[in-house]
Amino acid sequence: MSKEKFDYFINGEKGKYEVVIGLEVHAQVLSNSKLFSGSSTKFGADPNIQVSLIDSAFPGMLPVINEECVKQAVRTGLGLNAKINNYSVFDRKNYFYADLPQGYQISQYKNPIVGEGKVLLDMPYGSKEIGIERLHLEQDAGKSIHDMDPLSTYVDLNRSGIALMEIVSKPDLRSPDEVNAYIKKLRTIMRYLGTCDGNMQEGSLRADVNVSVRREGDKKFGTRCEIKNVNSIKFMQMAIEYEANRQVELLEEGKQIDQETRLFDTKKMRQDQ
């Protein structure tokens, strides 16, 4: 039995602060075609050649569910010791992205395909269980490219409509090291099952990171901030440390933390709203 103990806290002038973390992991489903169309999902193709009329949202096009994507989600749910729901529903999530031709994302919310589960982490200070809130299927958006022209943004829709599994954890993670172990364990499970290749450098696995802090011993959660679309474990750890320290500084100064969505600039190593 290891003599090490958990000891990740942010030290402020007024005491220690505990960091509370929840992850929304977006894992691309391994399948030959997209969630609602027959377009190829092969990585690295020339821009906009793997786009059907459904993917580009032509009027009158009706989506048809890809059975293999459903099976892959169920396999992943079983690997997460999760409840498989016999009844699930797709919803429209309405928002505007230039690379989202429909003007909405087909996703799941109240009735996901997979319910509560758990992942066990082997940490130096012992085994830790991380709860899974749900796993749901949804469409990926396309890709906006900002660095090819100083005045224009280019759009590649090859990724538009590819099936994603969004795996939502409970706020059970307490340190960047636990996040590291959790992502690696999820990736190992999905690679073993053949449901996601886990190639973060290709965007096949990325996460939205929810961070809040509270005084050591407090039971009530603090106000959380979400760091969107982080595609590297190292950057997740850095973003968590940055955000946790930012929140502690605000609380030490008697200021309020606003619930908001932020981005982590991996070049400047800081966040932007």
What does this structure look like?
The protein has helices at 67-79, 176-193, 233-252, and strands at 10-12, 15-28, 91-94, 104-107, 117-123, 126-139, 143-145, 154-156, 163-169, 205-215, 225-230, 261-265, 270-272. The longest helix is centred in the C-terminal third of the chain and has 20 residues, at 233-252. By secondary structure, it is an alpha+beta fold. The radius of gyration is 20 Å and the shape is globular. It has one domain (10-222, 242-257). Strand 5 and strand 6 form a beta hairpin. The mean pLDDT is 94.
Brief account:
With 273 residues, the chain is of the alpha+beta class.
Query: Helix/strand/pairing class, anyone?
Result: alpha+beta
Radius of gyration: 20 Å
Average residue-wise pLDDT: 94
Fraction in helix? 10-25%
- Give the overall silhouette: globular
Q: Cα distance, first to last residue? A: 44 Å
Largest sheet: 9 strands, mixed
The count of strands amounts to 13
What is the H/E order? EEHEEEEEEEHEEHEE
The fraction of residues in strands falls at 25-35%
Spans of at least 5 consecutive residues with low confidence = none
